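Quick review question:
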């Protein structure tokens, strides 16, 4: 899973937000900027740093590569 990949990395000061149709309203209320983040039917990951988010990542391999590029 994406969370398993994330937990295997050592990334200090990370914040994880998971958005689904079940928690969308509560998440948008807590973090209004997530309102624009739409993943559609598939899981989608946004990697953000320094107040800027990159384009959505839709595969576990691309997610792993993005996290590895942070080393």
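Suggested answer, residue by residue:
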């Amino acid at each position: 899973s994406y969370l398993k990949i994330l937990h295997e990395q050592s990334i200090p000061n990370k914040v994880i937000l998971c958005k689904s149709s079940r928690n969308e309203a509560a998440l948008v209320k807590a973090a209004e900027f997530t309102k624009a983040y739409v993943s559609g039917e598939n899981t989608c990951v946004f990697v953000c740093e320094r107040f800027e988010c990159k384009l959505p990542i839709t595969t576990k391999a691309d997610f792993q590569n993005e996290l590895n590029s942070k080393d």
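Why it works: The longest strand covers residues 48-49. The CA atoms of residues 10 and 60 lie 17 Å apart.
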